[in-house]
Amino acid sequence: MSKKLNIKTVVYVFLILVTLVSALPFYMMIINATRDTKDILMGFTFLPGSALLENYRTMMEYVNIWNGFKNSLIVSVLVTVLSGYFSALTAFGFAVYNFKGKQPLFIFMLLMMMVPGQLGLIGFYELNRFIGTLDTFIPLIVPAIASPFVVFFLRQYLASTLHPSLLEAARIDGAGELKIFHTVALPIMMPAVATMSIFTFIGSWNNYIVPLVVLFSPEKFTVPVLMGFLKGSQVAQNLGSMYIGIAISVVPIMVAFLFFSKYIISSISAGSIKG
Amino acid sequence: MKKLDHKGYFFIAPFFAIFLVFNIYPVLLTFYYTFTNYEGYGTPEFIGLANYARILTDSYFYEAFFNTWIIWGLNFALQLGIALLLAALFSDLRFKIKGLGFFRAIFYLPNLITISSVAILFGIMLDWQHGSVNMFLQKIGLISEPINWLNQPVTAQVSVALILTWLWFGYTFIVLMAGIAGIPGEFYEAALIDGANRWQTFVHITLPLLKPIMLYVMITSLIGGLQLFDLPMLITDGLGTPEGSLNTMVLYLYNQAFRYNNYGYAATLAYALFLVTVIFSAITFKSMYRKSVKE
Fold this sequence. Notes:
The complex is a heterodimer of chains A (275) and B (295). With 275 residues, chain A is an all-alpha fold. Chain A is 77% helix and 0% strand. Chain A has a single domain, classed as MetI-like (MetI-like fold, Orthogonal Bundle), CATH 1.10.3720. In chain A, helix 4 (65-96) runs antiparallel to helix 10 and helix 8 packs across helix 10. The longest helix of chain A is centred in the last third of the chain and has 36 residues, at 239-274. Chain A is globular and about 75 Å long. The two termini of chain A are 42 Å apart. Chain B is mainly α and 295 residues long. Chain B has one domain: MetI-like fold, CATH 1.10.3720.10. Chain B has helices at 7-33, 50-56, 59-91, 100-112, 115-125, 132-139, 153-181, 185-193, 198-226, 230-235, 249-259, 263-294. In chain B, helix 2 crosses helix 12 (263-294), helix 3 packs antiparallel against helix 9 and helix 7 packs across helix 9 (198-226). The chains are: A mainly alpha (275), B mainly alpha (295). Chains A and B meet through helix 1, helix 4, helix 5, helix 6 and helix 10 of A and helix 1, helix 3, helix 4, helix 5 and helix 6 of B.
């Protein structure tokens, strides 16, 4: 009996160790954000310092991180809305109607889903240069209208939830097809759209290479690009300010995760079983 | 069979219009550039297969190829090992470990954080003389001299692999737990009754039944891993420093295109990367699939 207890203790110690490793970098980030650069260079401590405001002011002199937040928010919200709405529209078209070329088009879409984003990056840059949309949010937002994976997911969802009799009933009531989509199909799809939206939002928020390539003006930078900019600026010498910049970029996501963690984790579990 | 109804086109039209312009066209345009020496201005000059010939003899490309594999491989082995161990502990009927929800959330947390922030955070924390990591390791007595993590090729690659492990083991753990939840409980109860020990239960029940899901994890991780960019780009100077050890395939592509304006060659690198991804995904899938069919 005592041996069993010991193994269990070892297991818990191990789990706590892994927990510490997961959380410690974030803890150090927050602690160092409150410390003077001189103190950070001098030594290591788990206790907070008192230079938080000073670090914040120094950082803001060089990089306006809230502006980056605003940019990221505009881009990510629009991406999420466009991707959700148009994917639902496309999924509805594929699930409900029968038209020539439907199967080939769907399979073509699935095949393109496998192609990594970097493949067309150079052509994408040139396209945007040609149509004059470099250094705008357009190349970050508009392509979200075509999100193959979300379409695929929603179509599978519709196939199992949307009953043809619902559509017939709405048609008999004299509703147009687009109205049927908005009043009957879209509400049914909402839970699936919400699940996809979380991942679309996070993916867009964390996207680095595309905004890095298409944006040039610092006042248009999204948070990830701004972080690279911060590293290349003079603030890089001021460690306390660097830490607070990183912390500000990270903490909101951590707070959001507190509220959504159960939802996010169950979505990952469900997605992988289907996948 | 329902009769043909052309209203469907109306619903899928916006998707395909945007898809064609922002997805298909750039992919084809990039393909066209692979046959040119385009430098970002003027008319691209057709040079046949010269870019493809150049790749075959480009030592930087091979370097990037092997770096990417070393970093991904080390990270994946660690990540899968830790995730499997955790999954085995949490699924063990005899341990009945509490707090799965809490642990799962904490383990998964790093995965959500913007990688560019993670890269810069570890760039500072792994600093040789003043980094928190060395200071901490010295304080608890694990090392006596500070390690110059990001200035030596081997430690730099190990650092990036460990950061990737830190980012991804929680995700892999969640996915494996989902797989284990799908294994009928009777299997474990039967094993318990038959007196199988933990190791036997794990090796003969959990592992074989988890194979399809491990395949899923491996292929998605491989596809993501071959595209490794944010971390090596931002953790040192973005040129693959130290000594080219952090030069990954996408980093090389990015630098060729947007630092040196070799669009034609960078386009060819993009297609080479695509080819590598397809080939290795297919190999992984085939070998794992054949093994699981045999059993």
